[in-house]
Write a sequence for this structure.
């Protein structure tokens, strides 16, 4: 559980650097870039670390309004996640599905599940063992960005791959 | 001594006496079914304290009664500062000229006493000032002192009912989600309060996300969604004992959006299996479940008709989220919403003739109502987010939550008349969302 929390903190940090108008629908914004976290003091990030997964691989994909379809950029990130996870087979993941605030609570909970399931299904088809994956939806309960316009909503319509397990996963 | 007053004593917590008799057909009437309503001016002078112990409550009870009546928008308070007369003897005929001159159309007089056993007795009379006649018989309630607000609400319910012809709703409660903390780290607890915000208490701590509590027909059990076991699951909680339990043991799928059946023996809810969300009925005795929908889409927020024969729910099976009605046993569903935009959180009215819902269109949220067949859609509110209506026990008022936009955006509970008038914020000590209105308490 401690590991999961660490992952969430990292992603929160990341998103702060991710808000300045890149392609908000491409699936890559907010992750997989060197923005924000790359200036970690003390040299290169260990490749087996959660930080590497979050910043270098990219721990999240984004979605269009009311959609759970994975775009090309999202698939590229998920492919890289699967490659990384298969290199570290002691890791397990929870895919968190989220929605923006523009929807009713219960519907958005189901929509977040749909997004998390889309990620799970893709990763399993890309070669990740299904037993290493579980999903949860937070609907609109855990926004990352708090403004009430598309700049924030696009970051909140996300599925985040939270990694747990393994050694040295601090 | 006025001979129409009938004393009737109760054995239980309360006893309600005396319905309006035929010859007492009120001269003051409000038809609340439509049209512009001119509020009826009403005076509720402090009740007479007939024993020393009743001094404080005598004024407080009159205030609660007046607040109840004024909150409907159907009555207007004649403030105490305008009074030129006082009621000093409950059993004497009021000096009607004292009240007509301050334009009071209705007058409520009352008396409060405490017995040796500490029990509180409240009695009242309602008068038509201009006709100089009583409206209905005098009524008396007895109960414990700590329940004084409930007795005041019972009095106000009776007055409301005699003048509008509708049943009252003031002696009722709300369960809701009390929220605190910043928008990206909101803490949520289940809380309960009287319909007017009094007597608030918390039923859970804020250690796990909790969502959308709903009353059982007994007004004592509630059902809600909680993340306390990790995944969102449906939980039952008894408000008297505080005991709670997960509805389905060993559940591996997420579950949400539960509501009780009108007879309280079943729950209808959504179970999320991967990308697919369907509606299930769960028997509360056996905990066995029956699948009611089988679409590939999201089917959620089911709500029973008051006779238990049908269920209205939201589904995106046709693309956008719309409202559908099906038999309570499942099977074919009929789409009822047709007005453009998308629809969610349908709730069947306690009268059975209307569906309240959340409507989303062009970046705005609305609370609306429609007939059960989808006709006569009427949007009552509009804002950034207005969501999750719940009906008053008499089907005349809706509560919902309104969330403001932006980084400091937060929800509060509001009420609005079925006609779209009388929008009011319900005062809560923190942010508040997901209200559910109980039935009238017994």
């Amino acid at each position: 559980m401690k590991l999961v929390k660490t992952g969430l903190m990292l992603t929160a940090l990341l998103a702060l650097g991710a808000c300045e108008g890149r392609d908000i629908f491409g699936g890559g914004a907010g992750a997989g870039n060197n923005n924000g976290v790359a200036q970690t003091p003390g040299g290169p990030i260990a490749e087996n670390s959660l930080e590497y997964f979050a910043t270098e691989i990219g721990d999240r994909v984004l979605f269009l309004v009311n959609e759970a379809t994975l775009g090309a950029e999202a698939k590229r990130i998920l492919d890289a996640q699967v490659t990384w996870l298969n290199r570290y087979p002691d890791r397990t993941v929870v895919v968190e599905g989220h929605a923006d605030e523009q929807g009713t609570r219960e519907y958005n909970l189901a929509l977040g599940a749909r997004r998390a399931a889309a990620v799970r299904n893709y990763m399993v088809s890309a070669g990740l063992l299904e037993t290493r994956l579980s999903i949860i939806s937070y609907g609109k309960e855990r926004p990352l960005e708090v403004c009430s316009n598309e700049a924030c909503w696009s970051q909140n319509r996300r599925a985040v791959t939270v990694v747990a397990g393994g050694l040295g996963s601090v | 001594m006025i001979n129409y007053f009938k004393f009737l004593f109760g054995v239980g917590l309360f006893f309600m006496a005396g319905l309006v008799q035929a010859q007492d057909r009120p001269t003051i009437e409000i038809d609340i079914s439509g049209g512009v309503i001119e509020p009826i001016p009403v005076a509720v002078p402090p009740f007479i304290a007939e024993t020393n112990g009743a001094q404080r409550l005598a004024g407080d009870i009159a205030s609660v009664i007046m607040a109840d009546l004024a909150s409907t928008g159907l009555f207007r308070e004649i403030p105490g500062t305008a009074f030129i007369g006082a009621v000093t003897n409950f059993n004497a005929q009021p000096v009607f000229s004292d009240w007509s001159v301050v334009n009071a159309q209705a007058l409520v007089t009352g008396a409060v006493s405490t017995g040796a056993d500490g029990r509180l007795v409240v009695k009242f009379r309602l008068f038509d000032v201009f006709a100089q006649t009583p409206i209905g018989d005098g009524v008396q309630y007895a109960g414990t002192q700590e329940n004084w607000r409930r007795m005041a609400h019972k009095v106000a319910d009776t007055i409301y009912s005699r003048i509008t012809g509708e049943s009252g709703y003031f002696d009722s409660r709300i369960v809701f989600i009390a929220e605190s903390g910043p928008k990206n780290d909101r803490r949520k607890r289940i809380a309960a309060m009287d319909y007017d915000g009094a007597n608030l208490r918390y039923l859970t701590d804020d250690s796990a996300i909790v969502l959308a509590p709903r009353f059982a027909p007994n007004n004592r059990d509630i059902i809600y969604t909680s993340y306390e076991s990790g995944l969102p699951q449906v939980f039952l909680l008894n408000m008297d004992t505080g005991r709670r339990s997960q509805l389905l043991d060993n559940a591996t799928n997420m579950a949400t959006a539960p509501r009780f059946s009108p007879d309280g023996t079943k729950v209808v809810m959504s179970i999320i299996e991967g990308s697919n969300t369907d509606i299930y009925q769960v028997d509360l005795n056996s905990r066995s479940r029956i699948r009611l929908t089988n679409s590939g889409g999201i089917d959620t927020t089911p709500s029973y008709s008051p006779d238990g024969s049908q269920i209205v729910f939201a589904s995106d099976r046709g693309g956008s989220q719309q409202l559908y009605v099906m038999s309570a046993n499942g099977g074919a569903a009929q789409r009822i919403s047709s007005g453009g935009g998308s629809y969610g959180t349908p709730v069947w009215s306690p009268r059975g003739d209307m569906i309240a819902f959340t409507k989303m269109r062009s970046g705005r949220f609305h609370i609306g109502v429609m007939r059960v067949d989808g006709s006569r859609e009427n949007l009552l509110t509009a804002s950034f987010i207005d969501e999750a209506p719940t009906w008053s026990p008499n089907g005349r008022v809706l509560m919902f939550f309104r969330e403001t936009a932006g980084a400091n955006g937060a929800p509060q509970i509001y009420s609005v008349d079925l006609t779209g008038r009388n929008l009011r914020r319900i005062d809560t000590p923190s942010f508040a969302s997901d209200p559910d209105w109980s039935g009238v308490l017994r």
Remarks:
- The domain at 173-437 of chain B is CATH 2.120.10.30 (Neuraminidase).
- The CA atoms of residues 160 and 168 of chain B lie 6 Å apart.
- Chain B has two domains: 22-164, 173-437.
- The longest strand of chain B covers residues 106-114.
